[in-house]
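step=encode ok
step=design start
structure_in=
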């Protein structure tokens, strides 16, 4: 009887504990079920947002379950009755950080009118552009990718400029230029750590957006391939537009070279560059770095004005005075002395300027310390010959910018010694 009375004593407590455990378990189950439902809703929103152009499968890891996504989208292609500068403007974000959302996705496609294009060209005139778009682009299309830090983490971006011969609808003024920009979140801690796969994802999203717009606008733009083989991160050889840049044929430094330059033709400007890898330079003052730049139309005027402002346009300064033995004295520092050769042509995009810059293997001293170098007369003449041979090869290359731009009536304007005396 004592055992029965003892059992009756603890039984209510056991029953209460069991009920509490069931309540806790039920609450936790409800909480996790609610989170699972919220994440499922967010995933459906991700798939449908921005006209279905977001790379949903690759962004699933950023989608939370503890709050609803915030979608903001507008544009004349989403709402035909709307007046907007944008054809498509869409932002999807999740989570609230201290100053910005935890993760954010943006896509924008804009039909740029002539005034906007001219303003952008004037602002960029003379600025060197290197196309780092990881996919091959057809003529008339230029692009780039980049990365930026956020308050927490980083993001990757891509932009495309596409020519539409048939014109774009949605703006009162005529427009034949489509500008696409994309921003995607990255799991990298900083912009320096953003992997190449993230850049490729942003590039393919920008291409998919451009194709979606041009197909529905019937603007005459050809589809851009999204399944193309990505470019290697560090190509040992120049791009097709820069294939004329052959250090061996030009008898430059016999060393390992690295190259950069345009991957797609742009009628407004062209750029190719090559330089030896590593530090130091071989003896004999061979060329260890070369740059070829061309600009036409507004870009040409802006580039020439920029060089005029800093005193590096042709005819602004006399050649270095030669000593009795024909040698010249050059002061070197952390900035490598260059010899530039300029030429002027008439091309499809209007009047164009070409600039070739060659850098010999000078000893540049330590840091900002200047050092005088005596260049023998024969070496100085050879440097001029190297610049002229580079210009001639550049102008004649079948796949180079001048031939692609149908340049003609070319006049050599003269040399510019870009070094202190």
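sequence_out=
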């Amino acid at each position: 009887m004592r055992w029965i009375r003892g059992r009756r004593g603890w039984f209510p407590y056991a029953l209460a504990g069991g009920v509490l455990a069931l309540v806790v378990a039920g609450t936790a189950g409800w909480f996790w079920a609610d989170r699972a439902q919220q994440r499922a809703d967010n995933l459906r929103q991700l798939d449908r947002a921005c006209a279905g152009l977001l790379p949903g499968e690759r962004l699933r890891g950023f989608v939370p379950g503890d709050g609803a996504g915030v979608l903001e989208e507008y544009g004349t292609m989403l709402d035909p009755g709307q007046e907007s500068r944008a054809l498509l403007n869409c932002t999807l974000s999740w989570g609230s950080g201290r100053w910005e959302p935890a993760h954010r996705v943006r896509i924008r496609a804009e039909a740029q009118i002539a005034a906007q294009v001219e303003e952008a060209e004037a602002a960029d005139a003379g600025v060197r552009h290197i196309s780092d778009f990881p996919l091959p682009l057809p003529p008339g299309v230029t692009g780039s990718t980049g990365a930026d830090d956020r308050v927490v983490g980083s993001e990757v971006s891509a932009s495309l400029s596409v020519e539409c011969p048939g014109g774009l609808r949605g703006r009162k003024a005529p427009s034949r230029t489509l500008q696409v920009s994309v921003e995607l979140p990255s799991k990298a801690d900083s912009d320096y750590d953003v992997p190449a796969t993230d850049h490729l994802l942003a590039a393919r999203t920008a291409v998919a957006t451009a194709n979606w717009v041009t197909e529905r606008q019937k603007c005459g733009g050809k589809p851009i391939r999204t399944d193309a083989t990505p470019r290697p991160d560090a190509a040992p050889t120049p791009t097709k537009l820069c294939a004329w840049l052959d250090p061996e044929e030009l008898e430059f430094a016999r060393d390992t070279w690295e190259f950069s330059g345009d991957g797609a033709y742009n009628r407004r400007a062209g750029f190719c560059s090559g330089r030896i890898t590593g530090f130091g330079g071989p003896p004999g003052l061979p060329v260890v770095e070369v740059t070829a730049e061309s600009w036409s139309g507004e870009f040409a005027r802006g580039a020439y004005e920029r060089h005029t402002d800093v005193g590096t346009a042709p005819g602004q300064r006399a050649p270095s005075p030669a000593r009795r033995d024909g040698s010249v004295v050059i002061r070197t520092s952390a900035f490598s002395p260059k010899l530039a050769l300029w030429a002027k042509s008439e091309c499809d995009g209007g009047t164009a300027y070409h600039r070739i810059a060659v850098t010999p293997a000078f000893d540049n001293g330590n840091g900002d310390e200047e050092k005088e170098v005596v260049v023998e007369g024969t070496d100085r003449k050879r440097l001029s010959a190297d610049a002229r041979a580079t210009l001639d090869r550049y102008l004649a290359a079948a796949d180079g910018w001048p031939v692609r731009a149908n340049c003609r009536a070319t006049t050599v304007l003269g040399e510019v010694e870009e070094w202190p005396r």
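step=design ok
step=annotate ok -> The chain has two domains: 47-215, 241-314+325-416.
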